[in-house]
Design brief:
Layout (H helix, E strand, L loop, with lengths): L4 E2 L8 E5 L12 H9 L5 E3 L5 H13 L4 E6 L1 H11 L6 E5 L5 H5 L6 H14 L1 E11 L6 E3 L2 E3 L2 H11 L6 H13 L4 E7 L2 E7 L1 E5 L21 E6 L4 H7 L14 E6 L1 E5 L4 E4 L2 E5 L2 E12 L2
Parallel strand pairs: 2-3, 2-4, 4-5
Antiparallel strand pairs: 1-6, 6-7, 6-17, 8-11, 8-15, 9-10, 9-14, 11-12, 12-13, 14-17, 15-16
Length: about 300
Amino acid sequence: MLAVTTDDHPAVGPVAVLANPTAGRGRHRGLLPRILDGLAAAGRPVELLTADTPAAAEQACRVAVAAGVSALVTVGGDGTVHRALQAVAGTSVPFGPVPAGTGNDFAADTGFPADPLAAVALIVAALRAGRTHPVDLARMSAGTGPDRWYGAVLAAGFDAIVNERANRMRWPRGPRRYDLAILVELARLRPRRYTLRLDGVEHRFDGVLVAVGNCARYGGGMRVCPAADPTDGLLDVVVGGRFDRRTLVRVKPRIYAGTHVAHPLVRSYRAGTVELAAEGITTYADGERSLDLPVRISAVPRAVRLLR
C-alpha cells in the first residue's frame, strides 16, 4: 500500500507540463487545452514545456526542475514519463503522469486512473492538499556515462531485440513495422547466454526473455513481472529459458495475465541490486532505448513523490 506524505516542497513556482502530442498516435491531442485548464484549477501558474526531440524534452524537464517549479506533470505515455523521471528522481519536486499514450504502465501500476481528465482531477486534488505518495524507482548504470532511471520495467531479451530491430527499420511505418520486426526476430530466435547477479549471488543461464521490474507491467498492459511492487524496495526479475519459437508464441500471450510465470522454463527472483550481462543486447526501459548490457540496476526506495 502506498504511503501518504505531506509535501514539504514549497508550493511556489509554476506547474511544468511536458506533453507529447504524438503519444497514443495523437488520439488525446485535442484534450491538451482541457488538461492545462484543469491543472490551473490547483491555483498555480501552468507552464507548457516545449521540445521537439526526446532529448530536448528531457533537458526541458531538467531545466524546469532546476528553476524551482512546484511540480512536474507529463501528458503522454511511458516514454514521456521516462523523460520526466530523469529530472525529478531523487528530488523533492512532485510528479504527476496524465496517461495519454499507447502504453501507460507506470501510471496504471502506481494508482492513476486511465482517463486523462480523471488523472488531472487526482493530481489537482493532491496539489491543493499538499499530498504526495512516494514510490520506488530503478536506477541503472553501465559504468560509463550518467546513471539512468526508470519507473516500470527494463526489457533485456526478445522484446528488447524486437524493439531494436523495429527502430532500425525504415519501412513499413506505424505498428506494422513492429509486427514485421517480431516475425524477423522469431525467425532468428536463439537463446542468449546471460550472467545475472542478484545482491551479489551469481546465476548463469541461456534464455530468451529477461525483464527487471520496479512495476508489474510493460508494453501496454503485459504483466511481465506480476508480483512487482513499486513500494517494497526491491526489483522483480523474470527470466524465460530456452524457449523455441513455438513455445514462445504460445507462452507470450499469457504475459498479459501474468500467468507465464507458472511455465517450467520461467524463473522469478527478487533483489535490491541486479547485475545483468550478455553479448549484443541493448536494453529498453519504460519502452525507451536505454543502455547496452552489462548494466547494474538498483532499487531506490521512495525516489519519486507522486501527486495522488
